[in-house]
Amino acid sequence: MKSFVTPLLTSAALTLFCFPSFALAQANSATDIDALVGAYHQTYGFTGTVKVVQGDQPLYEKSYGLANRSFAIENTPTTRNSINSISKTFTAFGILLLVENGKLDLHKSIGTYLPYLTADWKETVTIHHLLTHSSGLPRESGVQAHDELTLKQQVMRLVDQQTLLFNPGSQYGYSNSGLIVLGALLEQVTGKDYGAYITEQVLQPMQLNNTGYYRGRNVVDRQATPYRMSSTGLEFAQRSKHYGGNAGGGLYSTPSDLYQYVRAIESNQLLSAETTALLFTPHIHSGETDAEGYAWSIKKFGDETLHFAAGSGYGTKSVMIRAPESKDFISITSNWGNTPILNMLADIYLTLKGQSITPPDANQLAKPQDFAKQLGSYKFDPEQLKMHIGMDGDTVTLQAFENKLFLNDELMAAKGADVIGLTYTDEFRVQFQGKQMLIQINGNELRGQKVDD
């Protein structure tokens, strides 16, 4: 279920990487990072693997929690997880291989290569626009979770019917629709399906033995089961956002393989240095200090430039950053959809740089035993929920899991006597009066009535 506080969560996430300039101190030991990651495990229930490299020397790698809760199978460094939108970087690399071989021109229109396109924009949108998320295509295509459409079918049935939101190249606008087109382009030009091309031309030459491409519902060895909290309790989740061709989020990997992937890119063994540089060139601004390369984001952390890629699915999250000058690297893969992975990444990075951070504290969480009488579902005015917290439906559920308190899928913190709220903001608070739940957000109060058992 969609988080009922998405606007607040998005706002918080966007501020995570706006650090002021600071002098880099000597990095703390792996012990400090271990304590930090352990705090995320204890507080937020993080499950997955973290890998940290300093100056191209391994510093820390550890797995937490269960890959499969039904059979109590633990996560390990070789457990595979969906990497969701990090897959886009593999698609971009595959496109550049064809560019370097003279089979594609970055600045030719997509209609040059896909004769079945009929949309007006086929002659104005270029491969460059698609790689930089500046095509003007909408964020989503309309593909559904149960769909098993090929990439060509997705283009013809969905993307070809879409209209542009802005003129190509005029601004940044993240677009999964654009990656569908790029995947179909790879297939059209090579005569191979996307997964076969990426496997043969990228994964195998780079010897990424724990990285692969999902094919429908086919079983993957050592694949972690994705989990998430929902309004009805703990759920296992779909490993990718749909079962069809997926050039924007269809790969799985491990943090160690992602590090090997980055090293392979930097080695220039498959692409020339000149072509590789296009991946990390700031082609278009996407924020005050952020820019977009080809499927990679270029971010500034103080005086340091970082190459950033991240992904999020129904029950999985993944992220990696590479500092090309210091040769530092951090990657996290998680099969717990409620992991605050961007906060976690930022804290690990600052710890690596010797900065002081305040780790998560499980003692700040609300205790289920203190709200035992309030556990259950509450009915609200659906228009009020939609207006103030972006939630569809009319029911909010207070529930306990692993000795933690959740409001729908959001972990609750103690905010005072008989008051709970979100862990990352004070703008959302919850109190109870008899059988009523009172939600206070941005000066507004919403009242819900408890549903009798």
From TrEMBL:
Domain Beta-lactamase-related: start-end pairs: 34-338
Signal peptide: 1-25
Gene Ontology annotations for the cellular component aspect, listed alphabetically: membrane
Localization (cell): Membrane
Keywords from the named record: Membrane, Signal
Domain of life: Bacteria
Entry-linked InterPro entries: AmpC-like, Beta-lactam-related, Beta-lactam/transpept-like
SUPFAM superfamilies: beta-lactamase/transpeptidase-like
Pfam families with a match to the protein in the record: Beta-lactamase (PF00144)
Name of protein: Beta-lactamase-related domain-containing protein
Species of provenance: Pseudidiomarina homiensis
